[in-house]
Each structure stands twice: as C-alpha cells, then as structure tokens.
Amino acid sequence: MPPGSSVHRASRRRVEGSGPPSAPTALPTRRGAVPVVTPTSETRRENRRNRRGRHKGSGDRDNFQRGFDALGRLAIDGVVVSARAVDLATGRTLFAVDDSVSMPTASLGTVVLLIEVAARLANEPQENLRLVDRTAADAVAGSGVWQHLQVPSMPIADLAALVGATSDNLATNVLLRRVGLDAVRERAEALGLSRTALLDVVRDERGPDDAPQLSIGSARELTWLLATLANGEIVDAAVSSRVIGWLSLGTDLSLVASAFGLDPLAHRHPDHGVLLVNATGTDVGVRAEAGVLRGPRAGVAYAVATQFDDTTLHYRLAVLDGLRTLGADLLEYVH
C-alpha cells in the first residue's frame, strides 16, 4: 500500500491475524537528507487554498505545513525521522514521512507486551491479583517508580499499570519474565506486525550478544496499532479497553504531546474538549511517541520516531521543539 493511502480496511474488523496495512520496502533517511513527505491530495488542496490568503478558514486545520517544515529541518541537521497520522473516523492519511521504516522506539514497544498481558488476564481473571516477586536479575535503572519502593511483590495488573503510567523498567522486566518474550513476539506476529517488535528485556548496558535496541517500530504500524486499540479491535473490545486504560495513565507529555496543554499527571478525562492516550520511548539519541488525540472536531492516531546524535543539549532541544511543532498541528486539526 503506497504512502498517503487510507488505513487498511482490516482496522474496521477484529484484527487478530489480519494485521496492519502492508507497506513497500523503504530505506532509512540518510543523515543530511530531507525526508520523503507524502501529503495526501486533500492536504495539497488545502495548502493551495491557504496560500491564496492569510485569513484563517475552516480548512486551515488540514494544513500540516509547520510540522513538515519542522521535520524537514531536523532531517537537514542529521536527524532520522519517521512519522504518520491518520484521521480516526475516516482512516484518511493526514501526513506520512518515511513511515514504513523500522526505527528504534525504546520503551514504546511495551505496548505489545501490555496487549499480551491484557489478553491473558481476560482469559484468566484470577491472575489479576496474583503477586509476582521482583528478583535481582530483573533490576534495572532508568524510568519507573517500583525500583524506589520497598514492596518486593506486586499484582500482575498493577505492574501493567506501572508500565503504562511511567514505562516502568523493573515492572517491564518482571512482566516479561512472567509471560515470556517469545509470547510477546508471537502476539506481534498474530497482529500482523512485521516492522514492530519488542526485542529484549530492559538492560542498563547492551553487550555484543544482546539485541541492539529494546524495541523497533514503524510509524505506519504504530499508528495502525493505536488507532485499532482505540476502536476496540485489538483481540477484542475488552482487551483493547484494558490496554487503553493502562496507557491513559501515561505521564510523559514531553514530546509531541507537549503541545496539547494537558496535565501530565491527570488527563484521563477531556480537558477543554481534548482527550489523549499515548505511549513514548526515550533512550540516548531516541525519542518516539504514538498516541490517539481526540477533540471537538476530529480524532487522530499518530506516531513519530526520531534518531539523532545526542551529543549536545542544543541538538536534543531542537528535536523536542520539532516534535512539539508537529503536536501543535495535530491539536489544531482536532480542536
């Protein structure tokens, strides 16, 4: 399916085994090269109308030129960028930037882990409150709060909530030990994800025998995954709702979502008509986010991943500023 096309019709049905829209093979953007941006015909028409005058009209919300320009500037500076957004109601592609390329996505890949956990808990409700111990082998620094708590054991459902809320690394490793990395990979394959995967447990340091990244993902597949979760069509409505509930606890609004004006610690209900569910991934030289944003006028599913040489604070802040600019376009579209 070429960039710019609508979301695959399978996203309207139960998707276990049906999978995300297929994508042609694409090469990563070279450092210093402008990314391949594929606005839809609708977006191009709106851009032409916008250039005829400076007065803001109802069609201006379809113009993602600021986001295109911001991502283009990042690419010129050597940032590898992949991004995509679709309208939730129509499936129309709003923008796409090298969206079929697999990118490092850090803890964003734990969304598939949460799907596997939710499916198991749906089949075995008694497992929700089963206590699971943390072990020395699970220990890892970085994001999350469990490593700072005294309690040595937690229920499986609470561990999933910690992963959704803070990308808790320790909780991630304990859940992976419980369900198995192979089961998570099989779940991704059953969903039809070929460019998105959780590759390993969380590690403080990666050696030559370890996977080079915690996870990888393509913006095309991640957008499809979040949109289909929001539509209640991943595994079934109950499983989708459970995963969305965990992700709605997310406290990281530092990337695309920094433009939405929401309270990072409390945004499970609409605020000024805006409702967000998102997941993020952060590592050295990696910033990634996928989410669903709803507003009074529309809803969108989006995903963006960036990889850059994280050598200076100025360079990192430029990436964050570009992601925020893209978020401002998304907010204008839905609000």
* Top-tier CATH class: Alpha Beta
- The Cα radius of gyration reads 19 Å
The H/E string reads: HHEEEHEEHHHEEHHEEEH
Q: How many distinct beta strands?
A: 10
Q: So what's the overall shape? A: globular
The helix content is 25-40%
The CATH architecture can be given as: 3-Layer(aba) Sandwich
Helix tally equals: 9
Summarize model confidence as the mean pLDDT: 87
The largest sheet, given as strand count, sense and whether it forms a barrel, is: 5 strands, antiparallel
CATH topology: Beta-lactamase
CATH superfamily: DD-peptidase/beta-lactamase superfamily
State the end-to-end CA separation. Answer: 30 Å
Structural class by helix and strand composition: alpha+beta
Pick out the low-confidence regions: 1-17, 24-38, 47-60
Strand order of the largest sheet: 2-1-10-9-8
- The tally of domains stands at 1
Strand content: 15-25%
GO molecular function: beta-lactamase activity
Keywords: Hydrolase
Pfam family, one: Beta-lactamase2
InterPro entries: Beta-lactam/transpept-like (IPR012338), Beta-lactam_cat (IPR045155), Beta-lactam_class-A (IPR000871)
